[in-house]
Amino acid sequence: MKKINLIVNVKNKEEIPSLLEAGSDVLTFALKDYSMTSLPSFSLDILKEIREEYPTLNMAVLMNRVFMQKEMEEVEAMVKALCALSIQTIYFQDPSVLEFSLALHEQARLVYKPETLVVSKLDGQWWKEKGIQGVHISPLITLEEIHEITNGVEMYDSSTW
Predict the structure, then answer these.
(1) 156 — pLDDT class (breaks 50, 70, 90)
(2) 3-state secondary structure 107-153
(3) Residue 90 belongs to a domain with what CATH number?
(4) Does residue 83 fall inside a structural domain?
(5) Which domain, by its residues, includes 38?
(6) Contacts of 8 (CB under 8 A, 6+ apart)
(7) Residue 141: inside a domain, yes or no?
(8) In this structure, is the dihedral angle defined by the CA atoms of residues 119, 125, 130 and 133, taken in order, positive or negative?
(9) pTM of the full predicted structure?
């Protein structure tokens, strides 16, 4: 039987023990100033505290907003900091995050999660060829279309979706 990972969004640091006790496999944190979400956000300093308190925690970070040219140095520094912090998954939509991750050989941490989401196997294949961990497929398409993407993208193991 396939294992399904329970991926949970974290709203505050205090709920982490109960989320882990409930069987959460991955905890997702919105990164302050770097994410597009209505979730409460966490600063890098708070994420560092969480990592120190939970060294084996499987952490994912939403870094899924579009960045301006004037922000590139900060974005690059944040990608480096997240990798140094051993964040397992970085959800992104701006190609600059991919470019900075490629330069560090850390693209396997990335999951492409744009606001438009992935709706075709060509889109999924293109992103997977960049060496990233995966893509977020739109929940607004049919189950048949989702299967076509997961089965049609050669590098995906559909059992992990």
Answers:
(1) very low
(2) HHHEEECCCCCECCHHHHHHHHCCCCCEECECCCCCHHHHHHHHHHC
(3) 3.20.20.70
(4) yes
(5) 7-115
(6) 19, 24, 26, 27, 28
(7) no
(8) positive
(9) 0.86
